[in-house]
Amino acid sequence: MSVCQPASQVHDMEKLWEVHALKYAERNTRTRADSFIFDDDHSSPHDMDYFIWVLRSGDEIIVVDTGYDEAEAKRRGRPILRDPANALAALNIQPEDVSTVIITHLHYDHAGGLDHYPNATFHLQAAEMAYATGPCMCHDVLQMPFTADHVCEMVQKVYSGRVVFHDGDGAVADGVSVHCVGGHSRGLQAVRVKTNAGYLCLASDASHYYENFLLKKPFPIVVDLENMLTGFETIQRLATTNSLVIPGHDPLVTQAFPQEGQSGFVWRLDNGPNGTLPNID
């Protein structure tokens, strides 16, 4: 199976995007052992937040990842606070109005509820589809983060002509590109976005937490450790500053970035943080 190619520089683009993080779930029963390999403190609590992301430039809207719905929450015993597709209403967006969805990888918490977006084209790494449907899924420990129904929904999208596959770096729109980093999943991709503050990198699970990429502490769910460690460098290179690298699950994001609107679960990312972040530059 081919591995992801390293990210290359993307030419400067003119269009600027607003970027929002929408929180749809949280887990408060985790410890640091669930988040880091080779960490001296394994027993301290370590919470996790779950997000989808929305990019907007004028009338153009891109959704990054689709989260998981109530049915999946019940199957896994991991409750959600709100359905991710319904959460879009906080930004006056309806799922059927979305024409572009980027799926960073096919793990259950990033690729559920695809059918909520009936008019969307989905952007995915070819390596991720090959991984999620290939012989690696014969191993329970590698299969665990995937849900077969989600993968089958994506296969159906392929057969209906609604999937754009990328092999490494790829342009999605003016000012938005994807970059395959692998590591956590074979075809995991980060998203680079041109914003008013500079280039922002939605790392997704290339770094679940700031601590993963800042201190080079790998996350325990990993298919290729070398790619994960190299990915920590890639996501920093894709962003103008480390403060514009957005981890996929860190509750610190909700403390450092300003809330948007009155919903209490939307944060504005594209102007940069206005609160305390780790020593990241």
Give an overview in words.
By secondary structure, the chain is of the alpha/beta class. The protein has a single domain, classed as Metallo-beta-lactamase, Chain A (4-Layer Sandwich), CATH 3.60.15.10. It has helices spanning 70-76, 84-87, 126-132, 140-143, 148-159, 210-214, 225-238, 252-256; strands at residues 18-27, 48-57, 60-64, 100-102, 121-125, 163-166, 170-173, 176-180, 189-195, 198-204, 245-247, 266-268. The chain has a seven-stranded mixed β-sheet. A hairpin with a 2-residue loop joins strand 9 (189-195) and strand 10. It starts with 17 loop residues before the first strand and ends in a 13-residue tail after the last strand.
What key attributes describe this structure?
281 residues, seven-stranded mixed β-sheet, 8 helices, 12 strands, 23% strand
CATH superfamily: Ribonuclease Z/Hydroxyacylglutathione hydrolase-like
Largest sheet, spatial ordering of strands: 6-5-4-3-2-1-12
Mean pLDDT score? 94
The largest sheet is: 7 strands, mixed
Q: According to CATH, what is the class?
A: Alpha Beta
Low-confidence stretches: 5-11
Structural class: alpha/beta
User: How many separate helices?
Assistant: 8
CATH architecture: 4-Layer Sandwich
Helix content: 10-25%
CATH topology: Metallo-beta-lactamase, Chain A
Radius of gyration: 17 Å
Distance linking N and C termini: 36 Å
The helix-strand sequence is EEEHHEEHHHEEEEEHHEHE
Give the DSSP E fraction (strand runs of 2 or more residues): 15-25%
How many domains?
1
| Broad shape | globular
Total strands = 12
